[in-house]
Design brief:
Blueprint (H helix, E strand, L loop, with lengths): L3 E8 L12 H14 L5 E7 L20 H14 L5 E7 L2 E3 L13 E7 L5 E6 H13 L3 E7 L59 E5 L9 E3 L5 E3 H13 L6 H15 L6 E4 L18 E6 L2 E4 L12 E6 L10 E8 L4 E5 L12 E7 L8 E3 L6 H10 L16 E5 L5 E4 L20 H18 L8 H4 L2 E6 L5 E2 L5 E5 L5 E9 L5 E8 L5 E3 L6 E3 L11 E8 L3 H5 L4 E11 L37 E12 L1
Parallel strand pairs: 1-2, 1-3, 3-7, 7-8, 18-19, 23-30
Antiparallel strand pairs: 4-5, 5-6, 8-11, 9-10, 12-13, 12-17, 13-16, 14-15, 14-17, 15-16, 19-20, 21-22, 21-24, 24-28, 25-26, 25-27, 25-29, 29-30
Length: 644
């Protein structure tokens, strides 16, 4: 049975010249109470420091606990790493100040180097920075050992929004006199680009690690504020910590997935502090304090209520079209529940849409708990398919395809308009032909006549169309002002700069990994949000960044913003293709840039043939925004690997 380890850090008692806080120890007490309420046995390490003159609550966990100093925390990390075994669970919660230095290396150009502000010295009356690079070394050691890790950081790193008159903003300006300690270990970023089973693609921010074994929930983006709020019993606590405990109650306890918790948290933030947007990195299907789950989820998109209307948190940038149909239900409601309603897109914008219920008597109460599941999507109609007239049971197959909302072109004279054609090859295997007349590489053994069912064939064709729809996604109405606010390019292994649409061609004598860089510079005046996806050789759509998004503020060196998003992407030639005798591999890296936080995770696809695990879309901010701020742009970077 897996053991559970908990490390809780709450710091209010910063030195007077370092802005003491009042709510961080309350966070730790609240989280500790919530974990213990489920009677989950765990080894708990608590490091807290309460401000002088602040009376402790009767349930205080502080007592004679060690202070949250730099050395004490690192020793607890070491203890967990040494004691824990593979598949054990680790939860780390930090409430306190964050800070940021000015960017000083290539991998921190977007937001500078981030750090947690800890105490230091024998009496704990000094401060010391735990840099993200050092923190990542310990997190990596835990993940490498096979531990299942959850980290919550209820602090912020936003110098640009720091205000002297707000004592509960959890940011401390960087002090160069404290700076980097000489014995602070530096993280070798190059070691953190790990492969996946298709193209070895991984792209990580400067203090994140292999995303499969961990999840990190951060209170806000690099340009935002982490705030405290007053609870019903008039106790101050961090907004993220408070809504996290509430989400655990509302979503089903400690075994709930991070994606569900995140959706709930974001929905609750709109009521108290809509300018704060928590960010989730890593394995979103991992349970909050449990092992990763293999249970499939529904493909859902969040709904919020604005001025009495229902707003789907997806728009043209997500492939939403007028007239699309959705089933609307509560997050935790089974698909067959009578609570399910039917809605239709009645107005569409760049990043959001308005959805109307089809039955006048239907209504949604407290829309923050509701989500939409696609029923009919018109974007798939743009990619008709053709079924060869010689196929067995052709009419039944066509009926199945049309039941999936796919367009089947039966007029042979319009064959050129079809994106895919289904036929039978000489080996009696079903075969899909693309628009260029070339067979589509599927590598699916069950596509043989007599083995493949109509459902199997429909699954494959629908997958191909969804992949194609995402690949072809582009903004034909892109406003020049938004496009001119940033520059985007990739740097190939030889140092050449390539613009969107230009092919990156890499030739090898033998299969080796290769690295290129994605670079985006914000030359405008507003924050932009970056999403990076890999469209691979096995028809998968994967989030390369493995985070909600990368927020890129404009250049402001005094606030620690370099204005440049520069990340390495590592890729390799898939061994499966080599085994099939193929000498060329074509991928596409798609970059989407938006003017607001949003989510595209419900558009992700696994390898073709894998069980499609549906994804819960992140809940984005729900307060009213000016329509003119809803901007987006999409760019494709083709990558072709050739074995000579």
């Amino acid at each position: 049975m897996a053991m559970r380890y908990v490390i809780l850090i709450g710091i209010d008692a910063y030195p007077q010249d370092s802005r003491p806080l009042k709510s961080c120890v309350n966070d730790v007490e609240m989280i500790s109470y919530r974990l213990n309420r489920d009677e989950v046995a765990s080894q708990t390490y608590t490091l807290t420091a309460r401000s002088e003159g602040h009376s402790a609550a009767p349930s205080s966990v502080e007592n004679s606990m060690p202070k949250p100093t730099y050395q004490n925390l690192l020793s607890k990390f070491d203890e967990v790493i040494n004691r824990a075994k593979a598949n054990d669970l680790v939860y780390i919660h930090f409430s306190g100040h964050g800070t940021r230095s000015k960017p000083d290396n290539e991998l921190s150009h977007a937001s500078g180097d981030l750090a947690l502000v800890l105490l230091d010295g024998e009496k704990g009356d000094q401060i010391r920075y735990l840099w993200g690079s050092t923190f990542a070394l310990f997190l990596k050691a835990m993940v490498d050992k096979g531990l299942v890790l959850t980290v919550v950081l209820d602090c912020c790193f936003s110098a640009s929004v720091y205000r002297d008159d707000d004592s509960e903003i959890r940011f401390l300006p960087f002090d160069k006199n404290i700076g980097r300690k000489q014995d602070t270990e530096e993280l070798d970023y190059e070691n953190y680009f790990s492969g996946n089973k298709s193209r070895g693609v991984s792209l990580l921010p400067n203090w994140l690690i292999n995303p499969s074994g961990h999840a990190i929930l951060v209170a806000c983006g690099p340009h935002e504020v982490a705030k405290s709020l007053s609870t019903e019993n008039e106790r101050l606590c961090g907004a993220l910590s408070y809504f996290l405990c509430q989400a655990l109650d509302e979503c089903g306890g400690l075994s709930v997935k991070h994606s569900d918790i995140y959706t709930n948290i974001r929905a609750n933030f709109r009521a108290s502090w809509p300018k704060q947007n928590p960010v989730l990195y890593g394995n979103r299907t991992q349970s909050f304090f449990g092992l990763p789950s293999d249970q499939p989820e529904r493909c859902t998109i969040a709904i919020v209520e604005i001025d009495g209307g229902l707003h789907l948190q997806a728009g043209m940038a997500h492939g939403i079209c007028m007239g699309d149909l959705f089933a609307i239900s509560l997050v935790q409601t089974p698909k067959t529940s009578k609570e399910q309603l039917i809605g239709q897109i009645s107005k569409i914008k760049a990043l959001t849409s308005e959805i109307s219920l089809l039955h006048a008597e239907s209504r949604v109460v407290d829309a923050t708990g509701w989500v939409a599941t696609p029923i009919k999507q018109h974007i798939l109609h743009k990619f008709p398919i053709q079924v060869a007239s010689t196929l067995p049971n052709r009419e039944m197959l066509i009926s199945t395809l049309r039941g999936r909302n796919l367009v089947v072109q039966e007029d042979s004279s319009k064959e050129d308009n079809c994106f895919f054609q289904l036929r039978m090859n000489t080996l009696q295997h079903y075969e899909v032909i693309d628009r260029l007349g070339q067979p589509v590489y599927l590598n699916l053994s069950h596509m043989q006549q007599g083995q493949a069912t109509d459902k199997d064939i429909a699954d494959v064709l629908e997958h191909l169309l969804r992949y194609t729809a995402f690949k072809e996604l582009t903004n034909v109405s892109l406003r020049a002002k938004f496009r001119e606010s940033f520059c985007i390019s990739i740097i190939d292994p030889s140092g050449n700069t390539l613009n969107p649409g230009q092919d990156l061609v890499v030739e090898h004598e033998k299969p080796v990994k290769f690295t290129f860089r994605l670079q985006i510079e914000n030359i405008g005046h507003d924050v932009i949000y970056i999403f990076v996806y890999s469209l691979g050789a096995f028809w998968e759509v994967q989030n390369v960044y493995r985070g909600t998004y990368e927020a890129l503020p404009p250049r402001n060196m005094q606030s620690g913003f370099g204005g440049i998003f520069r990340k390495k992407i590592e890729a390799s030639f898939p061994p499966e293709l080599i085994e099939q005798g193929q000498r060329e591999c074509k991928d596409i890296f798609k970059v989407i840039v938006t003017s607001q936080p949003t989510a595209f995770d419900f558009l992700e696809l696994p390898r073709i043939g894998d069980v499609l695990k549906t994804r819960s879309s992140r809940m984005v901010t729900s307060h009213r925004r000016n329509d003119s701020t809803q901007e987006w742009a999409a760019f494709n970077f083709p990558v072709r690997s050739v074995l000579r």
